[in-house]
Amino acid sequence: MPIGPSGFPWLKWRLQRRFKIPLGNTVLNHYCEEGCTLTKPSADEVRRTTMGVVANAHTIYVETARNCCGEAGLEAIAAANIEHGRDLGEEGVAQGGLRKGDLRSIYEFFEAGHPFFGFELEIDEINENKLDLKVTSCPWIDTFRARGASEDICYWVTKIDEGIGHAVDPKLAMTLPMCMMRGDEYCIYRFEK
């Protein structure tokens, strides 16, 4: 399929320059000059590009709320993200991916999403009251940094994950004692009663 000047090169330019999304050369190699044939990107390339776009959206809404409304705007985002996460979690419970009262099922739920999202994680510690997930690879971190996101962005965005945890046990709170955006080597998602 030949690509003219208004085809994919325009998309490449817009994603790279307008939104400052680091797409990487493997994805960009699929976009070529006029007269070239567009090859089909791999599933991993599509996932990485999509996660860059999602991270960009997270950065825009969190930083806009911070700039326009201060702490009240950020707290409104936290509440909305928890509610959204709770809805996702209840759906996960209904489909059997999450189990009420079973903290290990939170890990299993997130691990099952790896092919779609790309977060690499493992259980760091687990008992009846606490689950520490160690996240060693985040598909959003480069975009967050490229867009100039504040180092606390993960706190606001992971409120979605806290809401997912509420579907397993409404007494769970989630904290981030370690976070790559704050300069740590990895993140710890701590779900605790």
Topology:
Elements: H1 8-18, H2 24-28, H3 43-95, H4 104-112, H5 114-117, E1 120-126, E2 130-137, H6 141-146, H7 153-157, H8 159-168, E3 173-178, E4 187-192
Antiparallel strand pairs: 1-2, 2-4, 3-4
If you had to describe this structure to a student in words, what would you say it looks like?
This protein has a 4-stranded antiparallel beta sheet, covered by helices on one side. The chain is built from 8 helices and 4 strands. The protein has helices at 8-18, 24-28, 43-95, 104-112, 114-117, 141-146, 153-157, 159-168, and strands at 120-126, 130-137, 173-178, 187-192. Mean pLDDT is 85; it is low at 1-15, 17-21 and 23-33.
The oligomerization state is: single chain
CATH class of the largest domain: Alpha Beta
* Radius of gyration based on Cα positions: 19 Å
Largest beta sheet: strand ordering: 1-2-4-3
What overall form do the CA principal axes indicate? globular
Ranges where pLDDT stays below 50 over 5 or more residues in a row are 1-15, 17-21, 23-33
Question: Looking at CATH, which topology of the largest domain would you report?
Answer: Muramoyl-pentapeptide Carboxypeptidase, domain 2
Residue-averaged pLDDT: 85
**Alpha-carbon distance between the two ends:** 55 Å
